[in-house]
Amino acid sequence: MPSLKSHVVSFVLRHSRKKAFSSPENLQRWIAAARRTEDHHPPVSVQQRFNIETRTVDGFPVYEIAPRAGERKRVLYLHGGAYVFEITPYHWHLIADMADRLGYAFTVPIYPIAPEHDFHAMFGMVGDVYRRMLGETEAEDIVFMGDSAGGNMAVVLTMMAAEEGLPLPSRHVLISPGLDVSLANPEVFEAERNDPWLGIAGGREAIRLYSAGIDPTDWHISPVYGDLSVLPRTLLLAGSRDLLTPDNLIFAQKARAAGVEVELVHEEGMFHVWPLINMPESRRARERIVAFLTENPSPLVEGARASFEAPSAEASGQSLQSEHPG
């Protein structure tokens, strides 16, 4: 049964953040308001706990959290925010918790966001960040971790690196990723009614601002239609009250069919990016992330009210496509 705190958070989201995604106009208003207050710097409490350096790549800051002495592994963390919102303290506290538990180095790019920038600027910058990482760290010691839009970016960046012939990361940790912006799956519209946070109308506007006119079924913005066989072992966390989850279930099924080891945590009653919020369910999710990165996990997690739900026959019958930007 979902915790009391999760019910409270869900109620607050439905009566606050949900409004941002209720229409294109509302999203634009929320973006404008966010630009007046956004601050990408790590909170003081995080700065006090870690040795953090700042680099500049393509004119944008990249924060580097130093690893524990003797630790070689490194995480590239790509934050969510529908491609239009900046990193938040919630992201930073998750990053800090993971850095503390794992001892890994964390690289956190403050990548260009829409509407001021688009797909090409975003991936130009994060691609350069990854190339720099490869000059300093073996690919087998690199993990890509991302939530929401950042989960999409982690998958797309790996596919683009494969296309370029670069060494690929050893693991993916994807938290409520957005992997299909085409809205081809009718189950997404059903799921929207039960989602306390996200809305299709505002989501469409965010994609319009970000996508630079790329076709919605192109793998560069909808990686579920790409060559999933190039992906590394993946931990995918999805909540039952997230409109992105129907597509995440399809992604897991297709990735497994392509030979990728996918560990899927499907948390009953949970909303979008719930591991970022301090509550019992997020603590379970974070423990699963640490175990996945430090142990040899089984292909599927069940228990703690986490389960796998197969997508419908209609949805799972969607064809795998790969197109290039026009």
Characteristics of this structure?
alpha/beta, Rossmann fold, disordered C terminus
How would you characterize this protein structure?
This protein is α/β, with parallel strands linked by helices. It has a single domain (4-311), classed as Alpha/Beta hydrolase fold, catalytic domain (Rossmann fold, 3-Layer(aba) Sandwich). 40% of the residues lie in helices and 14% in strands. It contains twelve helices and eight strands. The chain has helices spanning 4-14, 17-20, 24-37, 44-49, 89-102, 119-136, 149-164, 187-192, 200-210, 245-257, 280-294, 313-316, and strands spanning 52-57, 60-65, 74-78, 105-109, 142-147, 171-175, 233-239, 262-267. An eight-stranded mixed beta sheet has the order 1-2-4-3-5-6-7-8, sandwiched between helices. A hairpin with a 2-residue loop joins strand 1 (52-57) and strand 2 (60-65). Helix 3 crosses helix 9 (200-210) and helix 5 crosses helix 11. The longest helix is centred in the middle third of the chain and has 18 residues, at 119-136. It is globular, with a radius of gyration of 18 Å. The termini are far apart.
